Amino acid sequence: MGVVICFPEVANRLIMLGRERRFAQAWEMCAAQTAPRSDVLISDHHPLILMDKEIVQVILEKEPSVKNPILIEGFPGIGLVGNIASQYIVNELKMTYLGAMNSKYFPPLAVLLGGVVNMPVRIYEDESKGILILTADIPVHPLASFEIGKEIVSWAQSIGAREMICLAGITVMGEEHRVFGAVSRPEMLDKIKDKTEVFEIGTITGITGSIMNECRIRNMPAVCLLGETASAEPDPRAAIATIETLNKIYDLGISTEKLSEQAEQIELQMAQLSQQMKAASPEEQQMQLPKEFPMYG
User: Fold this and answer.
1) DSSP structure class, residue 188
2) Which residues pair with 59 in a beta bridge?
3) CATH code of the domain containing 203
4) Do the domain assignments include residue 297?
5) In a domain, 97, yes or no
6) How many CA within 13 A on the CB side of residue 72?
7) How much is the pTM?
8) Is 66 part of a structural domain of the chain?
9) What CA–CA distance (Å, rounded) separates 111 from 78?
């Protein structure tokens, strides 16, 4: 089965974030043609609550097998780069589901796949490559980013993670799909300088910025890869560039062929919808937009 990156919940997030409602229809069309690998995301094992704090709970159904792993995080943000890239890697590598992360500060949202509820922030591992992935289908509110970022890094250290990688997007007025890189420690610049555009001056916002700050405070090795995108709309091309840069730095050998095929399909559907919207009158445009999206059933 082909790997899917245009999940219905992506459209949910776009509506929730108030970004370009007309693109929700394109994502619905894409999702209708294919369905996510629910077997990868669903587990019936009895969960073990590893950490039960007031801010974040890590609920594991299986202990990590990887010793001193690299932990990769991908939360929704600019262009949904982190979310698309991290979920694609999970599916492409057929990674093992370990458990989930939960917090009272997360949006009140349940992810439905095949009619079954899944946690919106999930943890996977690939023992052969020595990596864990924390992938999310929900954004983190800026006011909660500090506390949640701190707890994510704390958990990473508790499992002996030797390094963190943050995947996210950055808005640049261009269509080159470059990948910018930043690190938590000066000596790590040599690791990325020939493989990325070093992000010399600027800011990393949101949960990714909070995680990188916390890694700097704790002197934990961390790399942030920012896929260049021209807008806030979902950008699978930026996710492809980010994964390919990840391959160059860490020699992971993750194929992006399936994601490239999906990107062409999504771009075509978005272009078609855009033309339809331009040709329609304001009244007809409103009729084409979904009046209500079933986020909660």
Assistant:
1) G
2) 49, 100
3) 3.40.50.10900
4) no
5) yes
6) 29
7) 0.77
8) yes
9) 20
The residues near 230 (Cβ < 8 Å, ≥ 6 apart) are: 171, 172, 173, 174, 175
Give residue for tokens 């009046």.
Answer: 291
Show the low-confidence residues of the chain (pLDDT under 50): 1-42, 51-52, 285, 288-297
pLDDT at position 2 is 37
Tokens 């979904």 locate to 290
Instruction: Show the tokens assigned to 277.
Output: 């919207």
User: Rounded CA gap, 250 and 54, in Å?
Assistant: 35
